[in-house]
Write a structure and sequence with these properties.
Organism: Streptomyces massasporeus
Largest sheet: 7 strands, parallel
Distance between the termini: 37 Å
Strand content: 15-25%
Keywords: GTP-binding, Hydrolase, Metal-binding, Nickel, Nucleotide-binding, Zinc
Order of helices and strands: HEHEHEHEEHHEHHEH
Number of helices: 9
Protein name: Hydrogenase nickel incorporation protein HypB
Family: Belongs to the SIMIBI class G3E GTPase family. HypB/HupM subfamily.
Helix content: 25-40%
Region (Disordered): 221-251
Structural class: alpha/beta
Number of strands: 7
Length: 251
């Protein structure tokens, strides 16, 4: 009997969940915290991450970064200017990262002694939201130019975030961005989540973001988002949906 597309999807996600759980335990034993960064293309996350990495290097923190794209090593080249160890992960057309890919790079590349690994996921707010990578912290970034209704359009991504970062805040005025409406929408899908405001052009927010990440690495309590890290639907022909289950990203 042939399996349905939904059954196959469920099996793929279940396998990923198992790998992610094993990887999370392994990373915990090694003292490595993983930060999974999700956003749309053009949110400014690469520039902001570069700022955060540079701050970490200045403080001699054992940090590294993996950056994922369908093609080119442009982002790795940009991030490497920070002085931190950086590796490009090419997905060859895949719209998201999976736990098996991260495990492979952790095993083959992660520099010894690294305690903080940033993973810049593929630019996409749908597919990556479904896949647990074994991360300690999931951060969703959004630029003011994207519109204050984004959290409502992509509830799985925003609803599974431990932290939300609003980027390009210097453009809020020209873009006509309604910050009050944005905050209301974020809290609607993820009550209690903190929103960090940033501007990569000036560096604003980079230090705050680094401190939040370091606090989690050092054992600080993590916000518990209301949605599971995966909605168990991954069809590009359907709208992004969500389930009202408590997230399991942090054991």
């Amino acid at each position: 009997m042939c399996e349905s597309v939904d059954e196959i999807t469920q099996a793929v996600l279940a396998k990923n969940d198992t790998l992610a759980a094993d990887l999370r335990e392994e990373l915990a034993r090694r003292g490595v915290s993983v930060v999974n960064l999700l956003s749309s293309p053009g949110s400014g996350k690469t520039e902001l991450l570069g700022r955060v990495l540079a701050r970490a290097v200045e403080r001699s923190l054992p940090v590294a970064a993996l950056t994922a794209d369908l093609a080119t090593e442009n982002d790795a080249d940009r991030l490497a200017r920070s002085g931190a160890p950086v590796k490009q992960l090419l997905t060859d057309g895949l719209c998201h990262l999976e736990a098996r890919q991260l495990r492979g790079h952790v095993e083959s590349w992660l520099p010894a002694g690294t305690s903080l690994l940033f993973v810049e996921n593929v630019g996409n707010l749908v597919c990556p939201a479904s896949y647990d990578l074994g991360e300690s912290l999931r951060i969703v970034l959004m630029a003011v130019t994207e519109g204050e209704d984004k959290p409502l359009k992509y509830p799985t991504a925003f609803g599974s975030a431990h932290l939300v970062v609003l980027t390009k805040t210097d453009l809020a005025g020209p873009a006509g961005f309604d910050e009050t409406a944005f905050e209301t929408n974020v809290q609607r899908v993820n009550p209690g989540v903190e929103v960090v405001r940033s501007c990569a052009r000036t560096g604003a927010g980079a230090d705050v973001l680094l401190e939040r990440v370091l606090a989690v690495r050092d054992g600080a309590p993590v916000h518990r988002p209301p949605l599971a890290p995966r909605p168990h639907t991954h069809s590009h022909s359907h709208t992004d949906t969500h389930e009202g289950a408590e997230a399991g990203l942090v054991p």
